[in-house]
Amino acid sequence: MKLLDGKLVADQIKSEIAAEVKDHFKDKGLEPPHLAAVLVGEDPASQTYVAAKEKACREVGFTSSVYRYPENITREKLLEVVDFLNADDEINGFIVQLPLPAQINEHEIIERIDPAKDVDGFHPVNIGKMVLNLPCYLPATPFGIITLLERYNIETAGKNIVVLGRSHIVGTPVSILLSRKSNPGNATVTLCHSFSKDIHAITAQADILIVAMGKEGFVKADMVKQDAVVVDVGVHRVPSVDTKSGFRLKGDVDFERVSRKCSYITPVPGGVGPMTIVSLLRNTLRAAKKEVI
């Protein structure tokens, strides 16, 4: 078993981005790429994630801004914020951190974002262009997954890939990316969800298994083919007496047992998470260079 080390690959890509920021922006006297984030409420996971994005921006030489608002923000106020960021020429791309409070319609907010600044890749224009294999901003987590497979030279053409979970953030887009005519891609992809029958039998046939179910420890060893490649997207805080924080992070896969059967597997943490953040940086760099829209 070998680890698909997302932290290692993300650090390599951040070095590449930092060199490009220096060559294309700073050495020419131009402002570096500027990534903004809108954070609503006090959700600990969202706060941690936005802080990690701020840190990554500093590491590559980006400008970073965070706009923080209380949990009770109104729909009208949040739309005003999105309109302000759309109109600000100094900001190349921005994200509205999800999830949002119950009084806010997430789809309405996402659709209000200028597709040219939608570096999370969630706007219907970017999703539609992704489906048509046109230049666009790819959703960050699927982008990170295919980059990880590519950097480890894992062959996908002709392979049987099973994706567990059909969210518009991970499962559905990664299934599209890996089935289209590209590299990585050209795979036969099966997308499973809560209504899929006999999931165990389906996953056991997978050469590559991508798990984004949101259920801690869902995938057991008997669900995995010998020498399969396993990508675990799940992140769950579970109580632990062995850590100072009182919890540890675990994924959707029973890592201890499944890893014994795999050729490659992502750890949690340190697998898909760092790749998601660095993919956001890649999209922002493309936005600053006006390469997409």
Describe the overall structure.
It is a single chain. The model has no long low-confidence stretch (mean pLDDT 96). The protein folds into two domains: 29-114, Rossmann fold; 140-273, 3-Layer(aba) Sandwich (Rossmann fold). Helix 6 (140-151) crosses helix 10 (272-288). It has 293 residues and is α/β, with parallel strands linked by helices. It contains ten helices and eleven strands. The strands form three sheets. The chain has a six-stranded parallel beta sheet. Strands 3-2-4 form a three-stranded parallel beta sheet, sandwiched between helices. A two-stranded antiparallel sheet has the order 9-10. The protein starts with a strand and ends in a 5-residue tail after the last helix. Helix content is 38%, strand content 16%. The chain has helices spanning 6-24, 44-60, 75-87, 106-112, 124-131, 140-151, 171-179, 199-203, 255-258, 272-288, and strands at residues 2-3, 34-40, 63-69, 93-96, 160-164, 188-192, 208-211, 229-232, 236-239, 247-250, 264-265.
